[in-house]
Amino acid sequence: MPELPEVEAVRRRLRRQAKGARIVAAVFPRPATAHPQDAAQIGRESAGRTIREVERRAKNLLLRLSDGVTLRIHLRMTGNVYVIHDARERSPTVRAWFELAGGAELVLDDPRALGRITLHPDAELEVLLAKLGPEPLSPDFSLEYLVRRARHSRKPAKLFLMDQGEVAGLGNIYAAEALFRAGISPTRLMQTLKRPKLAVLHAAIVDVLGDAVQSACTTYARPGRLEEAERFCVSVYDREGEPCRICHRTIRRMPQGGRSTYYCPGCQR
Hints:
This protein has 2 domains: 4-128, N-terminal domain of MutM-like DNA repair proteins; 143-263, Helicase, Ruva Protein, domain 3. The chain is 32% helix and 21% strand. The protein contains 8 helices and 10 strands. The protein has helices spanning 4-18, 39-46, 122-128, 143-151, 157-162, 172-182, 195-219, 226-229; strands spanning 23-27, 51-57, 60-65, 69-74, 80-84, 94-100, 105-109, 116-121, 252-256, 259-263. A hairpin with a 2-residue loop joins strand 9 (252-256) and strand 10.
């Protein structure tokens, strides 16, 4: 599933490929991709507008168009967005595409057809995204912020990190990896962590995401292929039954918040 580093890699690629391009038309062979909006209306309202900027907020791709509207794209499980220069390159799993002036196409390729594209006035979009926490690679995600939020949270550390209202965009893989680097059990209650340990966790989150973004921007090809597509070396994620690279204890997996959590019982307390 695309997480923050992968979505950021897509954003940077799209910014190079599509910033400044003018949308001629939009085609939704699968209209449900626009749910709950109307695909035809998105096509009408986006035609003729220019892509002014390509941004990311948490796991949302934001294509800022001229005249104050934004295309919001969520990749969900298997989505990917890229530009092709010949319609013959269009994959059978493309669920929507935007024809650009000059003949190129910006496509949403999504084998499981779970991704979504919606169109919003900028003011409306700000309201929709207002509940998200700070970006973990931004100055807003400071140690002081983490200490303040942790002090009042009885959530286990892993669930706290995956709460998009606490930290925007941090998903299952990198939350597990950050907790491993910080030596914190995923079940440890956040309010029991003292400031020095929170400082270690804060640094681990920033370092893990920094490494992962660099890896994704270099080699990311498509979702669902972490080991094949990235050079980011996971320490615990999806390594159940394998030895820890530090203490050699066996990596374990447990269900947590409806997801699988991987951890080392020796290194994480």
